[in-house]
Amino acid sequence: MDKKLYTLAPSETMDDLQLFFFPPYITLAHMFHAPEGWALRSRVLKQFQLQYVLEGDAEYEIEGLRYRTLKGDLLFHGPGEVHQVDTVGGKPYVCISIVFHFGETAYPIRELIGFGLNGAKLPHHMGNYSEHPIENRLSELVHHYRQPGLYHQQRSQQLLMDILLSLAESRRKRSEVSVTKEASGTGKLILIRNYIDAHLKEGFRHEQLEELTGWSRNYVIAQFKQTFGMSPVQYLVWIRLEKAKQLALQSGLSFGQIAVEVGYSDIHAFSKIFKRKTGMSLSQFVATLYRDTPDR
């Protein structure tokens, strides 16, 4: 019988509330005006950090990856990631830095903003949010963090979670657009495959596939091979041989007639390619399927 959690003492509910997490603990939230020539040498934090560019630009390096950040860019890095910042000479650099953690809780932040990719690193460049509500929330967070009292503490925590959830939503929308584009590409590949299936006997020219998809010949070949493990020509040969096997077993046609049905006018050429691809002649293939079963 399911527990009625609302009837239990708080301590008795904890084992059943594993998907609930404590709010983030903020250890730094400030707006920083970098002096001329300022730079941050390589360092490693044991906490998460959000770095938002309010004005100017800078070279931000995280784990050997360099990002040229401009006004509105938001960077994110996690515990243990080596990072450094170099400002650009003669240009201002004003940023908001938020450093936070979730206590001893193993908060699944990769699942929230990295979509749970096994072994994948967390994303660093979160996007550009100039004149976006996220920019206002970051500034408001800094304001509340600097004020004393429980209300301001709770507001800053709430704002940080709002920011993280907004980032997750933004990334999810971009991912959905990417999936839509990918689905469109997959649809064209299926269209190619169906076209080859329908023209098994006469075959195809690459110009026809280009016209069908709007892709270049090399792109058609590369995408088809990546998806189906063989080029369009290799796929045509494969389905012809599979059709030949089917006809040999079910149609009663001669081997010469089968060759013609699957697009080969020369039976010797057909026999040669069949043996090269399968390791046996068509007659040997049929014999292996109809070999007498020995008496027991």
TrEMBL record:
GO molecular function, one term: sequence-specific DNA binding
One Pfam family it belongs to: AraC_binding
Keywords: Activator, DNA-binding, Transcription, Transcription regulation
Residue intervals passing through the bilayer: none
Superkingdom assignment: Bacteria
InterPro entries: AraC-bd, AraC_XylS_family_regulators, Homeodomain-like_sf, HTH-like, HTH_AraC, HTH_AraC-typ_CS, RmlC-like_jellyroll
Boundaries of every HTH araC/xylS-type domain copy: 190-288
This protein's name: AraC family transcriptional regulator
